[in-house]
Amino acid sequence: MKTPAETKAKPKKTVKAKSIAIPKLGPIQQALKNHLIFSSFKTSEAATPRDWYDAASYSVRDHVVERWVQTAESYYRDDPKRVYYLSLEFLIGRMLSNAALNLGINEELREGMDALGRSLENAIEFETDAALGNGGLGRLAACFLDSMATMDIPAAGYGIRYEYGMFRQSIENGQQIENPDNWLRYGNIWEFQRPEATYNIKFHGHVVKYPNDQGEEIQHWVDAEHVIAMAYDVPVPGYGTDTVNNLRLWSAKAAREFDLRHFNDGNYEKAVEERNATENISKVLYPNDTSVLGKELRLKQQYFFVSASIQDILRRFLSTHEMKTQDDWKILPEKIAIQLNDTHPSVGVAEMMYQLVDVYQLPWSFAWELVVKIFAYTNHTLMPEALETWTVDLFGRLLPRHLEIIYQINHEFLHMVNHHFPGDAELLQRVSIIDENNGRRVRMAHLAVVGSHTVNGVAALHSELLKSTLFADFDRIFPGKLTNVTNGITPRRWLNQANPGLTALIEKAIGSGFKKDLTQIKKITPLADDADFRKAFAQVKLANKQRLAAKIEAKTGVKLNVNSLFDVQIKRIHEYKRQLLNVLHVITLYNRIRRGEKGITPRTVIFGGKAAPGYWMAKHIIRLINDVATIVNEDIAVGDSLKVVFYPNYEVSAAEILFPGSDLSEQISTAGTEASGTGNMKMALNGALTIGTLDGANVEIKEEVGDENIFIFGLTTPQVAEVKASGYQPRDYYNSNPELKQVLDMIADGYFSIDEPGRYKVIVDNLLNNDQYLLLADYASYIEAQDRVGKLYQKQEDWTRMAILNVANMAKFSSDRAINDYAKEIWHVTPHANAKAKK
Ligand SMILES: *Cc1c(COP(=O)(O)O)cnc(C)c1O
Fold it and tell me: How many other CB atoms are found less than 10 A from the CB of residue 10?
């Protein structure tokens, strides 16, 4: 048998990197003018606001490029261990203002624009969000990129360049309408196409087996179809450093422009069709948060980007390391760490084995040792509907060789388990990578756990629950493999950029060190007792609420009272997040106001978030919110005391206005369901008080800010389990609580849907007969907590004092802290300053 041509490692000669000489950049004002002419071909008079956005972006980009090139050079030259963050989602948002801020040229840019008679704020509005993610998981990946660059961690992100990102939501007749997100329509100044960085990705075909010279069985993947992955690079500038890391996003291109067979048959259209089918792989982001559909195209997306990334990672490694003997490969885990953001990229474990064993012909067990030292896996959810599995049939058709590899991994794993826990057949069934009970499926989470050296949950509670429930068996089999890294958010985007007023106030008090070292923010603690500081803090909040109110009026036509309590719940719409519980409170308040109760604190309840297009109940909840808003807002008996708004198309750029304008942060998921949450952190960092359950990172927020500075309510995780185990009867709560009964009856009887009285009966029936997320069990406790919130808001000084103490105690929730944890405990990498660029 012949050796496949591609199987021998091709050691590259080590070439000395040549420094690229970059011309000195002039003042930004000049750059703006030049780019208007040379990049946009516009005179200042003819330039549209979008042209000014383009000119500003090009001008800032020029400053990124120099550091970007030098960062890459310094990694190449010094060869530090690198981290590769693999994620199917990066919810980046806008780039211009963030890049200008991180590079420290924000003020210069603003002044340059001003001098030319243009407003930077206007220009910024012309940037379409890069919405390559669903929600928290994708935004976490974006925050982590910011922190890794800021902390000089040699790192790169890998993902997919979706042509269409998260759908754009509009509300028509109260209902969600999904519109395609054609975010690349006007081009993307922040990406660089790399036609030279392409890889062949194989699908389908079959496996042939034959003995090699030593008589061992060799497997070879043949007759596969090919797709090309082409790289697009996006710069990730760190804050207050010269490090600019890389985010590499893959786009699918047809391997051949046209299939000549069809062409010769005269079937031109068929040829074009096939080309389109191939390129569909990177066409659109799947808009499902916390649930999976098992669609073939989704698995194709996962393998497509993972294979391209791993080929790229190995290519980079081999370009500077000569593999003369097998032993030379031992340094691979000392040079690369791969983090799997959820199970979406977990086929990477099999792909790395494929590359090492089939392509580079390393012995199986030697390769496996390397793989486990390289990979680490972050789990994001305990919810069964979110755990990815693929039928063996689908997986085997798409990736026949990888299915064989997974069988082999599983065989050896089960053998090991059986050795340590002899005779426990049920244990073997439970932990097997192949689920034999549901029509044979590949369990991607099990592949990720077995193939990683470390598995982390994303908040203390979540990680404990992982150990005691979902991964309890694995915790016995691999003691110490399971750990926790609590999520974080980047203070650059979520404080500095989103809330310049608060940032300036803090900076005036304690200096600017907190931006890069959030532990310093603790220094504002004594200022909570300083009346002048409180006044200034309250003024900033008011200005942010005015900014938000103006935006809401423009979008929805609803005029808000900025002195009312802004009570905000913004996140994906999901039953477990319990937007519906919030609605029950809104209607309770409405009834109290109509009954003429005195002393009710005026409130504005703001909702925002997208529902997965196929998630009927979530969409129905959006409709209910809008129907309730219509009735409440038009009721003259209510007036200014209560307003309800649904903010359409919640996305990162909207979040940047919503968080700073919030007084109250709604974090009310059923205990044990929200892995961490990061919206809770953004809220508190912007001076909103939290009303929440003891769920996810709320638990740790409470620990940091103190019990007296947060509104906790509801059942705890063990209590939820108890209630469910002892035959939960939601109807008992309905029968024994007259306020609750009135609210549910109104919804069921069509009070908010006069044109179709039965519209929401299904929601109420579901609550009375099932109530999986225990809304009725938590209702009374929630209302009581909301009453405390309302009372406190009337004591503005006390409220502001508490808000300041929340901000002061947010250090733990910086993504810099999280990345430091990953770097030390999981990746074993150290910062590598881009010394070359230092001036
Ligand atoms: C932070 C963020 C999320 C996550 O919010 P949670 O409240 O943690 O679910 C989702 N979407 C966007 C746009 C965000 O900025």
Answer: 11
Which atom of ligand 1 lies at the shortest distance from residue 677's CA?
8
Q: What is the DSSP string of 632-696?
A: HHH-TTTGGGEEEEEESS--HHHHHHHTTT-SEEEE-PPTTS-S--SHHHHHHHTTPEEEE-S-T
The verdict on whether 243 is a catalytic residue reads no
Please confirm, yes or no, whether 380 is among the known catalytic residues.
yes
Ligand 1 midpoint to CA 175 (Å) = 21
Residue 697, classed as helix, strand or coil, is: coil
Query: What percent of the chain is modeled with pLDDT above 90?
Result: 89
Task: Give yes or no: 10 in active site.
Answer: no
pLDDT tens sequence across 731-774: 999 999 999 999 999 999 999 999 999 999 999 999 999 999 99
Kindly give the number of the ligand 1 atom that is closest to the alpha carbon of 667: 7
| Token pair belonging to 752 | 């908010």
Residue ranges and CATH numbers for the domains of the chain are 24-78+95-128 (no CATH), 135-251+288-486 (3.40.50.2000), 541-793 (3.40.50.2000)
* H or E, element range at 195: strand 192-203
Pick from 277-281, 555-559, 607-611: least confident? 277-281
List the beta strands (DSSP E) in 573-623: 603-608
Check pocket membership of 682 for ligand 1, CB cut-off 6 A. Answer: yes
Residue 651 near ligand 1, beta carbon < 6 Å: yes
The separation between the first and the last C-alpha atoms of the chain, rounded to the nearest angstrom, is 58
Distance 609 CA to ligand 1 centre (A): 9
Which residue spans within 204-268 are E strands per DSSP? 206-211, 217-222, 225-237, 244-254
Confidence (pLDDT) at 835? 54
Distance CA 509, CA 522 (A): 11
Instruction: Kindly state if the Cβ of 656 falls inside 6 Å of ligand 1.
Output: no
Can you point out the beta strands (E) in 77-129? 82-86, 90-93
Query: Which amino acid residue places its CA nearest to atom 10 of ligand 1?
Result: 135
Whether residue 192 is predicted with pLDDT greater than 50 in this model: the reply is yes
Segment (H or E) for 625? helix 616-634
- Cα dihedral across residues 377, 380, 386, 387: positive or negative: positive
Model confidence over 348-403: pLDDT tens digits?
999 999 999 999 999 999 999 999 999 999 999 999 888 999 999 999 999 999 99
Report the SS3 class of residue 209.
strand
Strands 565-570 and 664-667: parallel
Looking at the predicted structure, is the pLDDT value of residue 263 above 70? no
Q: How many Å lie between the centroid of ligand 1 and the Cα of residue 326?
A: 46
Looking at ligand 1, which atom is closest to the CA of residue 609?
Answer: 11
Its pTM stands at 0.96
Q: Is the pLDDT of residue 608 over 50?
A: yes
Whether 256 is catalytic is no
- Write down the catalytic residue from 61, 571, 585, 603: 571
Nearest CA to ligand 1 atom 5: 679
Active site (annotated) includes residue 571:
yes
Cα distance between residue 441 and residue 428, in whole Å:
15
What single-letter DSSP state applies at residue 155? E
Q: Are the beta carbons of 57 and 40 closer than 8 angstroms?
A: no
* DSSP 8-state assignment for residue 601: P
Condensed to tens digits (0 to 9), the pLDDT of residues 440-482 reads 999 999 999 999 999 999 999 999 999 999 999 999 999 999 9
Give yes or no: 411 in active site.
no
Mean pLDDT of 638-665: 98
